[in-house]
Amino acid sequence: MKKKVILVVSLLLLLIAGVVLFNKQHVVKASTELTLYGNIDIREVQLTVNGSEHIATILVQEGDRVKKGQLLATLHTELLDAQLAQAQAFFEGQQHVVARLKAGSRPQEIAKANANYRAAKSLAKTARDTAKRLGRLLSRNLASADDVELAQAKADNFTAQAEAAHQVWLLAVEGPRKEDIALAEAILKAKKASLMLVKQRLIDARLYSPSDGIIRNRILEVGDMVTPQSTILTLALTDPIWVRAYLPETELGRVAVGFKADITSDSFPDKRYQGWVGYISPTAEFTPKNVQTPELRTRLVYSMRVYACNNQNELRLGMPVTVTVSLQQNSEALNSNGCDSHQ
Question: For residues 333 and 257, what is the distance between their CA atoms, to the nearest angstrom?
């Protein structure tokens, strides 16, 4: 009797073990989706200006939504305004210098140079004629040698002056040298560069939003001194937004970039957010301590990003969420990213 009881108990235990093993195999075979746990992550931008000055205005508060290109803050620009006026004056002055050189001599200047040349040539001819007459008189002892020498010297002097006037007239006709024009143009370029530099500094004194987002922190206030290393505001980017999760090594071959996913949160348990696998790390790492997973924490995992559609702006930075990925997706799911294609 005792042996029969032991036999019956043994058969029951074997039957129970068989059922449990069968159920486990059935569950494994029937597993068609993967559940992961992670947190919402976004990018943040530390906003500053490329200048050193006191803050004049800050136009946003923490929590404000801003658009790309929106003016957020300004610096005092009194000194830069004065530098701009000075640079503008220097630039315009050099523009006139270049224009004058390129225009060449005015007709009146050429006419004046020609008249001076004719007058000098006439004086030179008169001086030469006088020297010749005195030379003839010297041979008849009607003039002294000193008078002749003095007359000849005056003739040579007036002849040289006439030649100088002639060259001045030729220069007036030809106009400025090409090298002088090139030098003036080079100086003009330098003045223009200085003007553009001051204008850029004025632009840098204004802080614009680089993209759409939400002002997370207002670190400095009006009157604070800033440098290019000083952060004035922190901008949280609302697009893209993703779940930072970790994929077990045993599931690596069953999930691919582009697979569709569903995301749920404790804050909105009745809502499912559509998403897609956007990135799987090429290197493995040990499971971080803060990962919520029933798997052993010593096994290797792969960092993973699941991008989310957050049209209602309900998913927030750091929010814990659950990601469900169907493992029955085919290659057609690949390259199908974006909220429009997942809605």
Answer: 9
